[in-house]
């Protein structure tokens, strides 16, 4: 039995992940952690696990049998999580976006003594998209194509641009030897577009689960590569695959590309 601690269990993604795990054999949530304990905590059948306000409140008999932590919380809650992982050396699947540079550095440092998988997006499609746009950029950028990224999410999303938009931009920029700058707002500029930039635009509204489009705009043709998420289930599925992947891994920092390559023996 794979025992999972679900960090951020009462958020939208926490509930989606808990529901998915409830349907799986040989996998269970042994404890949930969330700063907000909801009144309907036991209203749904899949919420059949104890919920604590912090990791340090979890009974030792529960935490001792935990195999992995799946994190779908917030950047504000990340420091406490990382401190706990550093102390207990429990494998961590970190799905939270909007982390600050110091937090990202802390993730790298802790991965030296604990297996950590961090990804801005847990879906198979998005992680394939990062490879496709990098390949496209290699061919099109030096031929004069401008690169723009448009991301759309629901009105409740806290960070902008999305972690996935930055993941795509970083993939493109790395392929181009880090030559590009990221432009998030052109409202204060009165000048033509520069060649050495990627424009990243954010849309927030309604219940949009997630949509990312990378546009390669030439003078006489445009190439667009787009991914649309129709439900949160794809991210929960990716997180569970990542958790299973980490069980056999030594200390280190991993990504969803490692999971995908392992699954397909690439």
UniProtKB/TrEMBL annotation:
> Which parts of the sequence bind (S)-2,3,4,5-tetrahydrodipicolinate?
154, 163-164
Q: In which pathway does it act?
A: Amino-acid biosynthesis; L-lysine biosynthesis via DAP pathway; (S)-tetrahydrodipicolinate from L-aspartate: step 4/4
Cite the EC number. 1.17.1.8
- Where does this chain mainly localize? cytoplasm
Give compartment(s): Cytoplasm
Protein name in the entry: 4-hydroxy-tetrahydrodipicolinate reductase
What protein family is recorded?
Belongs to the DapB family.
Task: Name the top EC class.
Answer: oxidoreductase
Q: From the UniProt record, which GO molecular function terms apply?
A: 4-hydroxy-tetrahydrodipicolinate reductase; NAD binding; NADP binding; oxidoreductase activity, acting on CH or CH2 groups, NAD or NADP as acceptor
Per UniProt, NADP(+) binds at 39
- What is this enzyme's catalytic activity, as reactions? (S)-2,3,4,5-tetrahydrodipicolinate + NADP(+) + H2O = (2S,4S)-4-hydroxy-2,3,4,5-tetrahydrodipicolinate + NADPH + H(+); (S)-2,3,4,5-tetrahydrodipicolinate + NAD(+) + H2O = (2S,4S)-4-hydroxy-2,3,4,5-tetrahydrodipicolinate + NADH + H(+)
Q: Which organism is it from?
A: Johnsonella ignava ATCC 51276
Q: Which GO terms describe its biological process?
A: diaminopimelate biosynthetic process; lysine biosynthetic process via diaminopimelate
Known function:
Catalyzes the conversion of 4-hydroxy-tetrahydrodipicolinate (HTPA) to tetrahydrodipicolinate.
Q: Which UniProt keywords apply?
A: Amino-acid biosynthesis, Cytoplasm, Diaminopimelate biosynthesis, Lysine biosynthesis, NAD, NADP, Oxidoreductase
Q: Which PROSITE patterns match?
A: DAPB
Provide the active-site residues from the annotation: 153 (proton donor/acceptor), 157 (proton donor)
What does the record give as the organism's lineage? Answer: Bacteria, Bacillati, Bacillota, Clostridia, Lachnospirales
Q: Name one GO cellular component term.
A: cytosol
Q: Which residues form the Dihydrodipicolinate reductase C-terminal domain?
A: 125-260
- Provide the residue positions that the database annotates as binding NAD(+): 8-13, 95-97, 119-122
User: Any idea where the Dihydrodipicolinate reductase N-terminal domain is?
Assistant: 3-122
Describe its partners and assembly state.
Homotetramer.
